[in-house]
Amino acid sequence: MTSKKLVNSVAGCADDALAGLVTCNPNLQLLQGHRVALRSDLDSLKGQVALLSGGGSGHEPAHAGFIGKGMLTGVIAGAVFTSPAVGSILAAIRAVAQAGTVGTLLIVKNYTGDRLNFGLAREQARAEGIPVEMVVIGDDSAFTVLKKAGRRGLCGTVLIHKVAGALAEAGAGLEEITDRVSEVAKAMGTLGVSLSSCSVPGSKPTFELSADEVELGLGIHGEAGVHRIKMATADEIVALMLDHMTSSSNVSHVPVRSGSSVVLMVNNLGGLSFLELGIIADAAVRSLEGRGVKIARALVGTFMSALDMPGISLTLLLVDEPLLKLIDAETTALAWPNVAKVSVTGRKRCRAAPAKPLEAPDSTAAGGAASKQMVLVLERVCATLLGLEERLNALDRAAGDGDCGTTHSCAARAIQGWLKEGPPPASPAQLLSKLALLLLEKMGGSSGALYGLFLTAAAQPLKAKTDLPAWSAAMDAGLEAMQKYGKAAPGDRTMLDSLWAAGQELQAWKSPGANLQILSKAVKSAEAAAEATRNMEAGAGRASYISSARLDQPDPGAVAAAAILRAILEVLQSQEA
């Protein structure tokens, strides 16, 4: 099946993509009649060496994203995964020469088509009297035995752009730049891994992988890799990649050893989520530092993609201080990241947590009668929520992601674990505040935040008094906080409906002669409100996004809230008996 792409046409997608970049970047210009992008301040480069690179489209942001002061002068783009035309390459060389540059260096990835087309354009330009040199970059570390074609050019080419650009900006000559980057390229290696292939616009995926397979050592044109391995954790895959890249038995290895200083590039091949990219970056840093390797700089992002391939490549470049200065040199290229000019290794990565404010002493001794009663209440609440896990999940699947029961069970287990650590504070205000912090940390989701808000606000009126009017005021404060930040209102089919119904009954606690019987009425009202949510239109929460205006099951959050109130009531009634 042909993949879906957001393009105007398959034939014109490379032109449209380059035009889009230039349209949105005043520092770039297209070369009329060619798929070539150049610096718009080309005439200011008189007396400098020009740097041209390029290749097939589909590797964005490479290469046009790296045009700018301190990097490339221009880029020649081919169709998707196709070498650019000789005529366009020659036109770009002529354009920079006529702008007054003193020579041109072509930076070419090691692929047959690129070598041939850039090489032919170079020879034609030299025949016209234009000084042109060419470096062919092969940084692939996949092949343990050297192929006749040599190592493929991969993401490490971007580092060559950076080094060459810094040298050119500093006024280095064509021969000096050529020699220097040729040496740098020898101290560099790249290895890729992918969860599946990519798909060229108008075509099917280039290869197939089963659900438990990963492709190791693949290129950037959808070609298969050197090994097909079983799916593993990010840590395991990164360790395998680094082992392969640095093994002396691998003819294309990078000679990285303990004590080496490197630049690390973690490159998204196009379709990997940023979440996964961060996990891979962390794994790579930990694995390298565990081997005694100093990471001088770490670049993480998308630098050279393979369309929509869900994979990554790791690049290692051995560096010394002079080379680091070139990596750190200023550039205006859009796709070059804003990298801190300090070593990654050796930096303190964690700040101590802020000190907690001192708590007022608990006026009632922990472990006393009040504390023991609170333990019984919390244990009953936890048992109730654990017993409701499957029912709440089933109710939530109709309107959400099916995890309401799991979330409440997580909270219950967190409370159980907390109770094992020692008796809870007997002060109601301190108890609610502690529970709020615990649920915010352990419960997660919007439920954790809402319960945290409710308990934090409810604790405030209980700091001064703990009589029945104070508990009614606590309920009011909690409900107010939930409505203020959660934006739900009674009738919106949320947990607030149960709590609100109970809160209305608890207003009677503010009158003289009130007793615990009012809590029994409040619980019945909460249960009735929870049941009534089955006939309500969802006005807040995830259920409000469902196309069906009405749902035929009660809201799981409202059911849970009513069940919590029922558990509290049952313990208090048993204590009175």
TrEMBL record:
Q: Which GO terms describe its molecular function?
A: ATP binding; FAD-AMP lyase (cyclizing) activity; glycerone kinase activity; metal ion binding; triokinase activity
Q: Give the DhaK domain ranges.
A: 9-336
Q: Which NCBIfam families match?
A: dak_ATP, PRK14479.1
Leader sequence residues = none
Domain (DhaL): residue spans on this chain: 372-570
Q: Which keywords does the record carry?
A: ATP-binding, Cobalt, FAD, Flavoprotein, Kinase, Lyase, Magnesium, Manganese, Metal-binding, Multifunctional enzyme, Nucleotide-binding, Phosphoprotein, Transferase
* Protein name per the record: Triokinase/FMN cyclase
Spell out the catalytic residues: 221 (tele-hemiaminal-histidine intermediate)
Catalytic activity annotation: FAD = riboflavin cyclic-4',5'-phosphate + AMP + H(+); D-glyceraldehyde + ATP = D-glyceraldehyde 3-phosphate + ADP + H(+); dihydroxyacetone + ATP = dihydroxyacetone phosphate + ADP + H(+)
Q: What does this protein do?
A: Catalyzes both the phosphorylation of dihydroxyacetone and of glyceraldehyde, and the splitting of ribonucleoside diphosphate-X compounds among which FAD is the best substrate. Represses IFIH1-mediated cellular antiviral response.
Keyword Nucleotidyltransferase tagged: no
Q: Which InterPro entries match?
A: DhaK_ATP, DhaK_dom, DhaL_dom, DhaL_dom_sf, Dihydroxyacetone_Kinase
Domain of life of the source: Eukaryota
One biological process term from GO is:
glycerol catabolic process
**Cofactor(s) recorded in Swiss-Prot or TrEMBL:** Mn(2+); Mg(2+); Co(2+)
Q: Which organism is it from?
A: Tursiops truncatus (Atlantic bottle-nosed dolphin)
Q: What is its EC number?
A: 2.7.1.28, 2.7.1.29, 4.6.1.15
Q: Could you give the subunit structure recorded for this chain? A: Homodimer. Interacts with IFIH1 (via the CARD domains), the interaction is inhibited by viral infection.
- What's the name of its gene? TKFC
What's any one GO cellular component for it? cytosol
Where do the annotations place substrate binding? 56-59, 109, 114
